[in-house]
Amino acid sequence: MASDAPGKVGRMFGVYLEDAGLSLRGTFIIAPDGKLMNSAVNFLNMGRNIDEILRQLKANLYLAKKTTEGCPSKWKDEGDATLNPGPEMVGRVHEALTK
Domain extents for the chain? Predict the structure, then answer.
């Protein structure tokens, strides 16, 4: 977490509110190569959940190695159930995770 009083970073990420002189609360997970892996933007009075941010960071690190898999919303650690995305999964995610 960081402060951005002049709004420079907020403007770069498109979350700066010029009229208010404030940035929306944004979380951006960026890979070492500069690729944006995940982003979430909340309004000014909406808090963020550090456990969820860490889960997303771990999932992105995992998926960088396992590019054909997908991490469902309940995924927390390597070894947890993953998905193999494709047309056959449409409408069947819950079924695939409860097998």
Answer: 1-48
